[in-house]
Model the fold of this input.
Amino acid sequence: MKFRILTAAVLTLLFFWLASPALAQIGKPFIHDPSTIAQCDGKFYTFGTGAGGLISEDGWVWQPGAVRTGGGVAPDIIHIGDRYYVTYAKGGGGMSGGHASNVYVMWTKTLDPKSPDFGYKDETLVASSDGTEDCDAIDPAFLLDPTDGRLWLTYGTYFGFIRIVELDPKTGKRMPNNQALNVAIDCEATAMMYRDGWYYLLGTHGTCCDGSNSTYNIVVGRSKKVTGPYLDNMGRDMIKGGGKMVAYASGRVNGFGHFGLLDLGDGVQKYSCHYESDLDQGNRSVLAIRPLLWKNGWPVGGENFKEGTYEIESERRGYALELIVDFVRMAGRMRFGAAADEPIKPVASQVLADVAKDWPAGNIEVRLGDYLNRPHQKWTITPVANVGGYPGSPYFKITIAGTDRALAATADGEVITVPTFTGDPEQLWRIDQLTDGTYRIMPKVVPNSKEPLVLISIGDSTPTLAKFDPKSDNGRWNFKLP
Done:
């Protein structure tokens, strides 16, 4: 985080599924410089600049209540063993203290402020800047290397270099005789992650703290070594200002900053950040959670699922989810060999009124079939208010377009449609985008089951509910506009 307005170069932004406003967390998700989101005893926690932070029961509805001592700016969290390490900085940022700053690490056994095990210990200085050197020691962030268990910390702002140091994962203290290394410039609020043999350095680029005029965006470089060099997709070194775009303003939200990885498993990765300005929230800085996709070895900031009417297409074969109802043929025969001067008369599409009068009144089963843009294959997906949610999104209802007939899970682990949406938990659906861009569709509740089941295709034409297999296309779906 920085407190002065900086001039950033105009960037050419990659275009990715724009067109409607982004979903924002609900409750009171007001925060600046959020830490990586941590889970503790079934709840989600994030800390921000200043005192305290946010807590959520489900990752969708956020309220104040997280407790962090030390004050300062731009904290981060990591869970190692039986400890939650928290890092933050004091000073710097270009205000009255200039660029002299200190980075601290402390730990607690729980993030729950009501637990008897809660309490921060061993506040330790791990990095600093003297105000004249080419570094401003704020905006720290952790990486626990999954290949060897070593713990790293990056820090720095636009005023000079981004640096990396090694910490002791058993204590959170700086490793003896460990020298800070320069890895990037022209960014701040960095974060790191590891995937498939690559280390990724994500930095926040652009201007900060200017409300709706903030240009914060998130860029990335990668390296085979944790200490760099970090190159972008064009081979530009981040220590020379390189960086591939990951996430940027869209709709009515501006200033994406402070990336944090939220890995939910089974091929679902999301990232947290703040919007410097959410126009629908009175221009406040708010917490955001969005899908993280991967393309050609690079992270891509995705969009949360948008309500609308879709074909629900199985990745397994490409067939569409549909009601099992009598097929109603459209008028007309195959035409060929017509005279060249014969007038062309468009044929009207089949609509709901043409077919729905003959559908059964009770429950109707579903299957997968060839898509023909027919009413029994079109599904309207709408967020449901006041029923909670999951990280980054509310629950949705899935109904046949133009009707209240809703998709539901059954106690037998199957899927049917019921005549009317009632809001029962088995009629609420979680829609997570996977890292390859396809989707996982999961009922909030399967009656008489405690297992997390998802919608799958066990055969080319047979949908059901089963455990998700991230190595199979059976549980992957696409949503296409009809």
Observations:
- The helical segments are 352-355.
- Confidence is low (pLDDT under 50) at residues 2-20.
- The two ends are 44 Å apart (CA to CA).
